[in-house]
Amino acid sequence: MSYRWDELTAELSQCDPEEALELLIDWGRQLPPLSPARAALPLSDDCRVRECQTAVHLWVGLTPAGAEDEGGARRGELEATVPEKSPTGRGLVALIVLGLTGEPVARVLATPVDLLATLGLVKVLGMQRRQGERGVMQRIHSEVRRLQAEAPPAS
């Protein structure tokens, strides 16, 4: 089975460092807006990813119980805001949101926390972005695990 995440990371892995940065910036332009219900509310400090130097707000959810895929898996649902003045950081978050939204929970949890190292982008993007990206992925992993634990058992 082919996943959106695999498609995006394969495209990125074929780029030289300059092309990778351009691709991230392009993805940043594609970061979906917040859902109307979420956009109507003020940004909460509870959703701020503290490890990010730029103000990144992230919401993690799962498809509702009863909406599992054919294999019985729930899927990740991600929303985020990142200021447009931070195009590279916005691109990294967009990669994660675009790539992991709709993926089965097992795939979301199997995604490495240290993406920049996995994708070979540490030298290109540096330590501060690596720390922020790790914070985003750690938040996603911990929230998905928490939501799974809170979910009623399948009947």
Strand content: 5-15%
Q: Helix amount, in percent?
A: 40-55%
Number of strands: 2
Count of helical regions = 7
Could you list the spans in which at least 5 consecutive residues all have pLDDT below 50?
none
**Element order, helices and strands?**
HHHEEHHHH
- Output the strand order for the largest sheet: 1-2
Q: Sheet with the most strands? A: 2 strands, antiparallel
Provide an overview of this structure.
By secondary structure, this protein is mostly helical. It is 52% helix and 8% strand. It contains 7 helices and 2 strands, in the order αααββαααα. It has helices spanning 4-13, 17-29, 36-39, 87-100, 105-110, 115-118, 122-150, and strands at residues 57-62, 76-81. A two-stranded antiparallel ribbon has the order 1-2. α1 crosses α4 (87-100), α2 (17-29) packs across α4 (87-100) and α4 crosses α7. The longest helix has 29 residues, at 122-150. The two termini are 26 Å apart.
